[in-house]
Amino acid sequence: MTVLRAQGLGKKYKRRWALSGCALDIPAGHVSGLVGPNGAGKSTLLNLAAGMLTPTAGTIEVCGGVPGSGPGQLAKVGFVAQNTPVYPGLTVAEHLRLGAHLNPRWDDALARDRVDRLGLDPAQHAGKLSGGQRAQLALTIGLAKRPELLLLDEPVAALDPLARREFLADLMEAVAEHGLSVVLSSHLVSDLERVCDHLIVLVDSQVRVVGEVEDLLDSHLRLTGPRRDLDTLPADQHVVSASHTDRQTTVLVRAEAPVLDPTWTVGRLTLEDLVLAYMSNPTAARPALEVLR
Prior knowledge:
The chain has helices at residues 42-50, 71-75, 92-102, 108-118, 131-144, 161-178, 189-195, 213-219, 271-280; strands at residues 2-13, 16-27, 31-35, 57-62, 77-80, 149-153, 181-185, 198-203, 206-212, 220-226, 237-244, 248-255, 265-268. The chain is an alpha/beta fold. The protein folds into two domains: 2-204, P-loop containing nucleotide triphosphate hydrolases (Rossmann fold, 3-Layer(aba) Sandwich); 220-280. A six-stranded mixed beta sheet has the order 5-6-7-3-8-9, sandwiched between helices. α4 runs antiparallel to α5 and α5 packs parallel to α6. It is elongated. The protein starts with a strand and ends in a 13-residue tail after the last helix.
């Protein structure tokens, strides 16, 4: 089952395309990490998926329907936007009452249990909470609406390391307990490594690579060996990035078969290696030889 499908998806602001030609299928039941440089289109994609924006081109389908097309569709999607927005003038308890009023699937017991466990004072105004507490309140509301898909746009960017860890631990506990699908946007690859089993790299408003994390790490390799022209590589080794010195070539490839050439030393990548390679080489094409001194 596909929880999000985009075909030729694009969003244009005046003369600038924030997202262009986006083709994407996200399977249900995964925690998908959405990563890319600033301006790549991550927030635009999530806002389109939540129904906060409408496409300029192409189509997007979420949980089997058009985002924002009606109350039933809105109930299927939870969205925690950047800066984990809450209402400063409302208390924690008032946030829960508002959530119950607006969401037909609202799980009041879940919301109150989380508030109690997190030690949030129901009488406290949200504007007086710490950044970590506000993030947890926003996550509580997103979870208590019992969505099929939870969209999180940089929810931990402003949190300290301890608050980030607690937020992500709570997220994983909720995923395990309720079996929902999640798309989590973050610049922090270490956070993605901790919680995500599926990866989307978005660069220059287009999806550059997508797949299950383990499959991507298994199929991407670092090859190091004597300097050579990359045009001599087999057709099933697709170059993502490369660097050269006078004597040595180092190349990151996506390989469709085992590398049998004995002149190469083959190494595995970390998730950060993989993400940075695609972000630093947006076209993922075979680069011309360049000597690095």
